[in-house]
Structures are given as C-alpha cells and as structure tokens.
Here is the input.
Amino acid sequence: MRMDFNSTLGSCRVSNLAVLLSLAGLSTACYTWAFRTLPADHWQVIATVPRRRDARGAWAGLNLTWYGFFTATAYVVAVVVFLTLLAIVPASLGAAAALVAATLACCIPASRWVSRVIDRKPFGFTVAGAYTVGALLLPVFAVAINAAGDEPRILLGPTLAAASIALVVGEGIGRLACISFGCCYGIPLIECPPLVARLLGNRGFRFISETKKAAHEGGLSGILLVPVQAMTTVVLTLTAFAATALYLGGYYRTGFLTALVVSQLWRFASELLRADERGAGKITAYQWMALAIVVFSAFVAWLIADQPAPELTLFGGLHALWSPPVIVGLQALWALVFVYTGCSRTTAATVRLHVCRDRI
Here is the structure.
C-alpha cells in the first residue's frame, strides 16, 4: 500500500510538472512574440466596420481593437484556470460557475467605472480596477454561496487560492492589451533610475502611431519607454506559476497570499515607472488600492487552511472542463467581453469603398 501511494504521488508530480513546463514554454513563446510585435502601429485595430455614410460617400467606421481581443482572452483564460484548479479538488462545478458569474458581473463593468472615477476617462478601461473589485468581492461571494445552502458547496481554501491565481493570470495576459493600445506606458528610458536602465539596456517600447495613447496623451511618440507592461506580464506570470505549485501541494493559504501579495506589491512598485496620468499625489489611487488588497488578503488568509493534497493533477481538472456547456459558456464570455472592451470609442475611422473595375 505504501508503495502504491508513493507511486501515485510520484506520477501526479510528474504529470503536473509536465503541464506546468508546457505552459511555461507556451507562455514564453507567446510573450516573446507579443513584446516584439504589439507596439507596432498596425497592431492596435483588428478591423473597421462601416456604420454611417456621409454626403461625400465616405463611411464612418467603428474600430475593433486588439485591446478587446487580448482583454477577452485574459478573462477566458482566467476563468479556465480557476475552474481547472477547482475541478481537481474536487468541488461543485455549479457553485464554481455561480461564483464566476457573480464576480464577472461586477468586474467587467468595474473596468470602466473605476477608470471613470479615478482617471476621469468616461470611455477608458482599467485592468487594475477590474482586478481590485474581483479581489475584494470574491471572498464575500464565496462565503455567501456557502451560506445559501445547508452545507458548504465550495471549500474556501482551494476556492480562494484558485481565484487569486486566476486573477493574477488574467491581469498578466491583460497587459498585452495595454501594449497594443499604447496605454499604461512607462517613463522614457533615459529618465528611469540607473539600476533599471542598466537592467533594461535598450529593451523598451517605442510607440509611433498618433492613435497610440502614449503618443496622443503623453506626447511620447517615437521615444523609447520603459516596457512596464511587459515587465508586469512577466512578474505576474511567474507569480502565478509559483502560486499554482503551492496550490498543487495543498498549501492553499500560502498560494493565496503569494498570488495577491506579490502581485500587489509589484503594482505599487511598477506605478513608479509609469508616465501616464495616475491621479494626484505622490501615492496614486491605484497604489492605495494595491495596499488595501494586501491588508485585506492577510485578513482573508485566516479563513483558509492548508491540507494534504497528494493526488491533485492538472490533467484531471482540464478533462472536467471538456463539456459542451463549459465550452459554449467560455465562447459567450469571450464574445461579450470583446464587444464591451473592443469597440473603440476613443478612436474613429473613415472608410471609402469602391469597385475594382478590372476584376469584374
């Protein structure tokens, strides 16, 4: 029996290691491509949809942005991570879906509401705002879902740990949207602290197109900037991998605190490298929000207990999600977020259509 247990434990670790290494390789390839490609002019708008025709025969177009594409992808990947980690505990998929639905119903509109209140931008979005609202409301919703039944429907430890990892993954991928739109941009490389300058060398972002936010808002067109968006993506992805490893070992409290505390301390520090408008004061509203989450997570950690989890396999969690309702639900979520965040209100286009006479 002892030999069988050790054999099972060893196979689980090998399986999980294989999945994590595969995801690490895929992430490295995707991020390498994204960091090199997305600052370019033509990676801001996916397509332009003609809407209204004027008296001169031109069409006013609606721009569909890569910002919306990567934001929608970030939401879907975050949900997949959450459901996968929760499915291997195991937990009630229905309760988990209810928790996701309640959280997203607040996070998606909050990405615009927080920007409207703090940044004074009625048509802008903020990844940090959505993250903050999700981090604060998720524990409340989890406790409420359990209180609604006669017995606990979800385990708070695995649920909150999985949710914190999912939030970090989502924000990390979401920063690719910022690169494509040229927002959340860093300070000029020549103005950054000497240590940062030496570490980065000439590896910065240069936004040229007048529709990129760094150009039209910051007046930094063509200037090499600190790639703070890429740095955030890398830091948060590494944090998510570390927290996932802790989760798979049954260290739910440690994984929860690792994901939230590291990500928020990085947010506080990374604000010092940003040149976009962050509000008045030496400490910005977003930095205060990050500190609030750190304090809140320390309080919530008392609700979480570590427990042995020798047979948690990521393959099992992925298999549990392979069902038509889950797949259709994820597709619907992607489409909803893309329409909400990808239909640009801060850029416009003029389109002229004509017939190619030599081809008819």
